[in-house]
Structure formats: C-alpha cells, structure tokens
C-alpha cells in the first residue's frame, strides 16, 4: 500500500485556516483520497486533555518551557495515535497547525529559539514531517480583530498585540527558511482566490507522487 500524504495549515489566529481546510478536504476527496482532518493541540483523547491545559485562560503563570513541552507531548500522542497510522494506511492527512506553530510561537515569539524547540520536537515528530505546509499570512491586528468578533479568547489569543506581531513575523521568517515546503499566501485575499492558490500547490504535490 502506498503511503498517504501529509499537509499542514499554518498561520496567525484568525487567518482563515478552518475555511481553507474544508475546501482542501473536498478537493482531495475528489482526487480519490480518504481524508483525515486533525488539529493541534488535540486530535485524540490525551492530546485534547493537554489542549485544555495549554489554552486555559486562567493559567497565565505557565512558563514558556512548560508550554513548549506540553505542545510537544500533545504532538507526540497525535503522531502515534492518529497521523502516523493514517499516513501509513494511504490517507491524506490535513492538520490545522503542526510543528511550525511551536517553532514560531515558542521558538520565536516566546524567545526559546527555533533550534531548541525543534530539537525537543524531533522525538515527537519522528519521520512524519509534512510534504506541504500552507501558511496563511495575516497582519496581527487583523487576525485578533477577527477572533474578538467570533468568540471568547483562549490563553494564547489573549496575549498582547506585540506578541501576535512577533508570531506573524515569525511565520514569514519560517516561509523564507523553508520555501521548498512552505507556501505563503496573503490571507487578506478573497477566499476563492486563496483556495485557487492552495489547489495549485497541492496539484503539484499530487503530481510528484
């Protein structure tokens, strides 16, 4: 059996990842794939429990190192229980966030260092790095404004505007570091235009298999 494909969707809060994930799912199903959508942190019983700790707005005293370790722990369980088996069974996996989020949020915005965060996460990831990462680029002010209009904010969303500006800048830096894997798209474009760009990127991935 052929291995499946692994695509991740990244971007600052409010960048529209959920909408594009649903459109991408429909496209991949049309291409004949059995599609699995998951999210980080979360995606299974243990990782969802860790998510409740990470995003709890009452835990403002959480240290950056603790935060990094919790994200890596949730990721390790998701790989072992969900992503790894799905890829090995030939499915197309789309994850709403993956290790790039940790490299940006904890490595850059929290100041722990990209290399430090990556080394911690190597054990969690194992052999399962995405073949393609879609990065929706959005100014921090726009993203937070969108989130405030949608719902009650979690611990990460409640961070300062300065923090979210570091996140947005961090994602742009990641796209420059890994241009062969990360496709950066202007998230202020119309939904259909963004989808068209994503579809073109995914067609290239499917064509290379």
Give, in order, the helices and strands: EHEHHEHHEHHEH
Please give the number of β-strands.
5
Amino- and carboxy-terminal Cα gap? 13 Å
Overall mean pLDDT stands at 94
Task: Sum up the overall morphology in one term.
Answer: globular
Helix content: 55-70%
Strand order of the largest sheet: 2-3-1-4-5
Poorly predicted residue ranges = none
Gyration radius, to the nearest Å?
16 Å
Number of helical runs?
8
Assess the beta-strand content as a share of residues: 5-15%
Structural class: alpha/beta
The major β-sheet equals: 5 strands, parallel
Commentary on this structure:
- This protein is of the alpha/beta class and 209 residues long.
- Helix content is 56%, strand content 13%.
- It has 8 helices and 5 strands; from the N terminus they run E-H-E-H-H-E-H-H-E-H-H-E-H.
- Strands 2-3-1-4-5 form a 5-stranded parallel beta sheet, sandwiched between helices.
- The radius of gyration is 16 Å and the shape is globular.
- The protein starts with a strand and ends with a helix.
- The relative contact order is 0.21.
């Amino acid at each position: 059996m052929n291995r499946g494909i692994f695509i991740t969707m990244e971007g600052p809060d409010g960048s529209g990842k959920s909408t594009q994930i649903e459109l991408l799912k429909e496209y991949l199903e049309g291409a004949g794939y059995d599609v699995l959508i998951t999210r980080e942190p979360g995606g299974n019983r243990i990782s969802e429990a860790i998510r409740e700790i990470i995003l709890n707005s009452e835990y403002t005293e959480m240290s950056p190192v603790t935060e990094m370790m919790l994200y890596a722990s949730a990721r390790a369980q998701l790989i072992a229980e969900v992503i790894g088996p799905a890829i090995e069974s030939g499915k197309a996996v789309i994850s709403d966030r993956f290790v790039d989020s940790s490299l940006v949020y904890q490595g850059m915005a929290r100041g722990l260092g990209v290399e430090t965060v990556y080394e911690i996460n190597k054990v969690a990831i194992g052999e399962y790095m995405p073949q393609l990462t879609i990065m929706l680029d959005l100014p921090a002010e726009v993203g937070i404004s969108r989130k405030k209009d949608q719902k009650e904010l979690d611990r990460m969303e409640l961070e300062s505007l300065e923090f979210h500006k570091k996140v947005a800048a961090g994602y742009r830096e990641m796209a420059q570091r890994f241009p062969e894997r990360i496709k950066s798209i202007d998230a202020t474009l119309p939904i259909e235009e963004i989808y068209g760009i994503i579809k073109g990127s995914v067609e290239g991935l499917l064509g290379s298999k």
